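Last lecture ended with a question: if I hand you only a sequence, what can you say about the shape of the protein? Today we answer it with a concrete record. The protein is Probable 2-oxoglutarate-dependent dioxygenase AOP1. Below, first the input exactly as provided, then the predicted structure, then a couple of comments.
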Amino acid sequence: MDSASNIMLPVINLTEEILRSGKDSWTEARNRVTRAFEEYGCFIAVHDKYPSEVSDSIFSELQDLFDLPLEIKVQNTSQIPLFGYFGASWDLPLYETTSIEDATNLEAVQKFTNQMWPSKNNHFCELLHCYANQAAELDKMVSKLVFESYGVEKYHESHVGSVTYIVRFTKYRVPEQNETNVGVLPHTDKNFITILHQNDARGLEIQLKNGSWIPVDFPPSSVVIMAGDAFSVWSNGRVHSPLHRVTMKGKGRYSIAQFAFCKKLVETPTELVDDEHPLLYKPFDSLGFLGFISTDEGRKTQNPLKAYCGI
Ligand SMILES: O=C(O)CCC(=O)C(=O)O
Ligand SMILES: [Fe+2]
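The predicted structure:
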């Protein structure tokens, strides 16, 4: 099916001011966030975690990062499948990406920036470290809202303790004449929650449960918060992990995706399993799943999540 562009994703205010203004606004945010994850798998969040100067500055630094010589960029490798540096390929000629693991940790960010800029780039390092920590705060707040909503907040602290953040930067160049406008192919994220930030260039699209695709237009001052497969497993299928893709619209695009990955196995709380909701998945290893979908078997399966850990 094609687009259903009259449908808009929910826009939810998650500013500190709103969330601190009383029990009612917290409860409202909790209900709206949970409903959005169940219906769409994502929503647009208005937040006050990083002011527009930080966004502008980070996107300007990203241009410099992707302008570095290829022999420097390829030095950023990763043990984790699908992370590290990837340049344009025959099937994704517009796409270039690089990533940082454990991005809330200053030493990890320093290691990356020192590798990319041997003569140092303290500004980028500080900016990114601050950005990743602010996005992590947002991530924790969002997972807390949902854990509370399902009455299982007692597991939240241990969940937060198990999370590590990987930040992926992506550049999508403008297609040349007669070139594909595919930025990135349809996929679900494999982690728990993703916080997605973009410059002022559109292109992200998500698939609704009815199969139609809608554009997701959001200004750089807000973010898209999206559920990944791990969150769907944890919630016993209540939370939807949406297919999404990028279709280029004629302007160069940069995005920053911050992925919350669980280091331990993700298990569905027993409270979320009953006769009406039988257990759907075995305990889930996010990194193992990335390995699985990188194999021929994983690539060929219709529903890799079911094949990997379905019951
Ligand atoms: O660039 C975007 O907006 C989407 C990126 C994405 O989906 C991903 O890196 O998983
Ligand atoms: Fe994604």
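Comments.
1. The mean pLDDT is 94.
2. The chain is about 35% helix and 20% strand.
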